[in-house]
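Dig into these lines:

——
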Amino acid sequence: MATADGTWAYRDRFGDEFGRTYFRRFGDGVVSSLGIGTYLGEPTDVVDDEYEESITTALENGCNVLDTAINYRHQRSERVVGRALAEADVEREEVLVATKGGFLPFDGERPADPGEYVREEYVEPGIVPREELVRGSHCIAPGFIENQLDRSLDNLDLGAIDLYYVHNPEAQLEERSRKAVYDRLEETFTRLEERVAAGDLRYYGVATWDAFRVHPEHANHLSLPEVASRARAAAKEAGNTATHLRAIQLPFNVHMADGFTVEAHEGAEGAESALWFAQKAGLNAFASASIGQGRLAEGLPESVAERLEGESSAGKAINFARSAPGVTSALVGASSREHVRENLDACRFDPMGAEAFDRVFE
């Protein structure tokens, strides 16, 4: 498990190589403001090898945030993260490992009959009650999430996970009311609080695509204040003195800045954006799609690019995401060693200050 001593030691080893605020607080430790994402890529051995090399390069050169999910590349991404972490010249206590559960994963490759696989692997054994399935592929019931947490521990070959996200709970809104989704989240949070007490989980969070960055009237909206309230209730139910809800994840980049611009959540002083609410509530925010899944490497709007430091469009896009108030770490895919080194080089520049960032939106 990542520790304060371990992550601060990692920061002491690499911090002088990067720009201002490259390392940022997470709990009682620190993490790099560049994180490695593992979503993209075909489920092949070749891509596995590329990921392993890239993740190892990142860990050994100043990036100590690894983000994955059990469904990414049919469980292959988790397994690669585990292998790379074991092989890299770093200590386990220096690295934040985050994964997610919610989408039913295949195992290594897409089966010939996905419906039959889901039925035999999850429904018939009772892991997922049929009525809990949405789209035939998504579930956030506590028993299923606990099952997935255990599988992730096995895939990663770890004794504990630092941050476990409930993955895209807004998918449940296709078939359930918001109240029903909040109720289910509270039940699942309670189970995760129990796993924290058991010692194989440090923190949990909610990873989203739409939920926290759309207006309240949007069909996929979930209230961050309500989610935080349900986490507090879950901690009390589990007998913990405080909630271990620690983080949110949402897309954030030049073209998807809604997490900063859309005032979708009711704070103490009125409506606030997800990033502002999270910051005030003590929640770390992790930015997914920081370079638009590669698209922003081809260019940024000139009015934004001219305000950012960096030697490439991808580097400037990373620094835009790192500059947003409340963002702890910007997640970027690790497609090759060269790209990892380029992304790390971008972080040798300082991010924008708060006033300069605000002026982008004037």
